[in-house]
Amino acid sequence: MKLPRRRRMRRTAILAALGACLTVSAPLAQADSTSHRVFEPRTEAIALDHSVTFAGAVLDTPPAHLAQVFPERYSDIPGVFTFRGGPTRTGGSWGICPLRERKLEIAWIATTGRSPPPWGGGAGWTGQPAIVQWPAVIRHSMSRLGPRRFEDGFVEVIQGSLDGSVYFLDLHTGRPTRRPLATGNPIKGSVSLDPRGYPLLFVGQGIPDNKPIGLRVYNLISHQQVFFLPGRDAASPRKGWGAFDSSGLLNRATDSYVVGGENGLFYVLRLNTDFDSIDLTLKVRPEVLRYRYAPPGRKHLGIENSFSVVGNLALFADNGGTLQALDLRTFKPVWAFAAGDDTDASLAVELEGERPVLYTGTEVDKTGPRGNAWLRKLDALTGKVLWERAYPCQGARTPKKIDAGAFATPLVGTGDVSHLVVYTLSRCPNFTGGLMVALDKASGAEVWRRPMSHFAWSSPTACRDEQGHTFILQGDISGEVSLLDARTGDALDSVKLKGGIEASPAVFDGMAVLATRGEWIYGLRLR
């Protein structure tokens, strides 16, 4: 049916405004899928039983339309859309941090509600917010923003909370931008947004409470749930537990969302998105592929880390310490590596020339309460260890089990610190303290170390000033946030927040956002 002339003119104007960033329906234009890398690792038979299920059937070869190769550029829109920014899990910040005075300042404080003990409010591990500068056309469509939908340059913070709600805040003032969205269960992980700019929000729930636990997808125009993926999945190898602490990735070239579950399954959701920016309707009709695996001799399953992707390779670890590379074109494992203990921290990936490498660290969990956290660099095409270092840590078994080691995702240096990878360790070398170490990427040798009075789960997040100098934000369990010189590890400034810090910060230009345990979300000005 032909649209009335007025609506045709409006649609033409909207399409022009969207430009290369968006389309009115999915999948995206072919131009977005041309900038990608395909890796052809030499696969050998590995001892990793696996199967793929789609539409109720176990398949040897999945349907071609579910094959995935991720574009090199995750988004064309300003923002932080998923945990650690994108598929390599090496970011968490966008833009330039002024930092002329090398100072941190509390700009605002927002509060959340509280769920019953022991969870409360605020945010836990990994708890990073998403931050987005909505494209004008999308912003105009979201009436729940009120007058802000007409505000050019508006930047929104979206924070999941242990109280079970998602909070929406103005980056610069901390004031609510819309009513909280109640999901029914505490959120421990990091929410994620559609990097195309579509108003789709993905929320993994961490603790079962008032509703069935799982991954929930919301339409941010209507605030209605448009899809629910139950965590207690009949196909799961881990029965009775269905949390999603992992923050997924959306492949804008294929309109697919990829995520790991603590139930031991790896999912691909072909969304079949139908978004009409004229009528303000957004629908998804997901097709669900499940990848299941079983490492021999290891019964501890569950993907808590947010998996990484480079091209067609997905890289992730599990509670039993199995690291693996999965070819997303065939959904067959390329290699598997036994790390020796639980690995919850995400694998940070970068390219060395044309070859991907990854950085990873273990906990002291199954091997505890005293033991070594192993920090490693691996060849991402083969799983071969390029170097490794052991750091003694101390957990506890009584009166309750407390783990130690690497909970923070390593920081992969770029620019003036492109030779460094920074790890933050919890309860190392003693029970109450922590340790940050910067290792040389080529050799694994220590370049600097910073002992910490209090342990930390929060991931170190980097930002860069106008001169190209790199700085690190690091929070600890006492509530202290430190600003460090990434080249030396020297502390430049610090601020004390209410509540312990488990979550990781996200940075947008000169503002950082970080939530604490309790009921607080902080905006920190980097000046």
From TrEMBL:
PROSITE patterns: TAT. InterPro entries: PQQ_rpt_dom, Quinoprotein_ADH-like_sf, TAT_signal, WD40/YVTN_repeat-like_dom_sf, WD40_repeat_dom_sf. Residues 436-521 form the Pyrrolo-quinoline quinone repeat domain. Coiled coil: none annotated. Residues 1-31 form the signal peptide. Keywords: Signal. It holds the Pfam family PQQ_2. Gene3D superfamilies: 2.40.10.480, YVTN repeat-like/Quinoprotein amine dehydrogenase. It comes from the Bacteria. This is PQQ-binding-like beta-propeller repeat protein. It comes from Archangium lansingense.
